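Person: Show me a sequence?

Helper:
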Amino acid sequence: MLIIAFLFIFVSFQGAQNIEMISGTETFVEKDSKLYQNYDHLYLNLFSTQSIVVLVEGDDVKTPEVMKSMNRLEKQVDPLSGVVQVTSAASIVEEMNYQKIGKREIPDTKEEINSLLSNTNTGKTLPDDTHALVFVEVEGDISNDELRDILHETEKSVSMTGFPPGYSVTVTGEPAFSLAMEELMNESMPPLMAIAAVLMIIALYLVFRHVRWRLLPLIIVFLGIIYTFGAMGYLEIPMSMVSMSAFPILIGLGIDYAIQFHSRIEEELERLHDEKEAVIETVKHTGPAVLIALIITSLGFVSLYTSTVPMVQDFAKLLLIGVIMCFLSSLFVGVSVIYGLDSIFKKNNKLINAINSKIKYDSNSNSGKNTEEQKNDIIERYIDKVTSFTIKHPVTILLIAGLLCVSGLYVDQDVPLETDTETFVPQDMKALVEMQHLFDIISGNDQLNLIIKVDDNTDPQILKWMDYFSNHEIETRDNIYDSSSIVPIIKSMNSGTIPDSSDKIQELYNQMPDGQKERYIHGNTMLLMNLDMGDAMSNLGLEGIDELVKVVRKDISWTQPPADADVTITGNSVVFTTVITALTSGRIAMTLLGLSLIFAGLLFIYRDWLKAITPVITMFMVVGWAGGVMYYSGIKYTPMTATLGALILGIGSEYAVLMMERYFEEKSKGENPIEAMRESSRKIGKAIVTSGFTTVFGFSALLASPFSMNRNFGLVTVIDVGLALLATFIVFPAVIILLDGHREKKKQKKQNISSSTDNSKEADA
């Protein structure tokens, strides 16, 4: 077993090298959806460019020295592969000077530069006298590796172009921010894993003291994590901001399986003093129980897979693969290692064994009080007291728990959504601060991109409608600041008017540089119009952008575009708005589906309604409590916490299933329901508490994440796992005692009736 396990480690390392880090559109939108096709196939592939921005700041950016430095920068960056064009005030000055004197050069005096700029629209390239922008436009569908190369070359060129002393030059923009965020994601993974390991060591030392080799479960779970990394690579599951949070979760979940097997085999070794028999008993009783728990946990995770967001689907895949790998490593490697260690320990330490036997003999000859004190430590005594109290007052416990659940479900509807995606990343992140500073200067660059499909893009009626519609939006909508399309270019080439004939428009198209034309026209049937929303993500949030999109869509229908025109609204803002709304609004459906799957799975496995409904009732209470905690603590829902309902069902139902399995095992030995519940909580309770504590400590590692979305997720998960533990020892015993007790009474009543009937027949005979 161990040789095979080590071989799989090498295979996993090979597969892990194929893991790809992604953060683009494909993480949010399914590739076969209309939303993705409109955005990726039509907009990104045909029209979109990304802008790396070089921000120049100083006392006066119109000096010849600054202009010449920007001009040199343009000429160094423009030939790079993937760069569409480079624009700045310097290139505008150079072009104007060429038209004036026939030379493409920057004038040597500031007066000449001011004269050239006085009658020229510089757009965003020159916001004021102290700021200048160089826009390095690259292809919209370029790969991250290619984009990173262009960014590095731009930074290198900035250092080589020799801007005058006293001027600040910053390379920024959304591409720079996205790449910096990806690097931070990669850098944050190892520390999170290390913190999770340290926290779990502490947890195991605190609550897993009744066994030998108490840190072994941590080694076993990390083995399962290694296998999971390998499977990710071979199955081509990418790493995203959401899926990176799966690993602390898997450490917390996977160690539960290792602890259950470890605790049971130690119990059997102490009882039987025979390694082989102990292994057989452990696998016979704990194997099926943990396997059922694994299946039910997986069913909870399956509900996540119904999400329309690819990164949530990848998150679900990763969790499913991870729990299976951790289960297999716990069953085969964990049990094998303990079996081997125990054999070696007993063979090489005969003297110690003899002393231990004497101690056990003396202990057994002492009073029952001393034996009880040895076996029942603080955790066991506390669990026994809680269980005994719950069993005595089941109706009261369930009434209080039910009221808290209902109230939690009610206020959960009022928990706010965090829709500003910039708050998900560290607020002191250098790339974010620089990008926000840029947007303070140019008011952001969020856009609505309107793709207009027509029969003929030289139709004057199409261009006139575009001109009217863009002016209408700028004048009547407070959050539409500007627009760009082929129309202003056509008007500038035709004395400020749109030609009345298609031939004249086609003639003007032919006169345009290809680079300028291709930004707004594709073929003969497609046009692009951009509506500038400024920094809409910060000013409006996703909900505000969603409302603005609806308004623009209404305006399109009211302004009546030509009959052959089909207008599609797309763009980065539209994609994010749709995705975040789908994530957060679908959380209730995912939770209900998770409950249904767990109930159906338990019913299929046990063929017993009581065994199916008891864990579901227990976890339903937790879902309600969690909603109340979210509301009263002021925590907002994010794309990650929106998945918590289904996630907690998967985690918490495991505790309930393990407790239920032990309950019916004890009951099969002849115990009545109350004694069976007390005995099972004493025997498996400590292992469940240990699992819960290590899970909580594992999730706590997310609190150290640099991403606020992950920290928020970690905090809420820690709280919810604590609630799941509480429900396992308070709600579950009350439910099982009431339901099983009721069934036992009905069974006894039927037996009494049957016995009375038989006695009557005998008397008659």
About this structure: Residues 49 and 140 are 4 Å apart (CA to CA). The chain has 28 helices and nine strands.
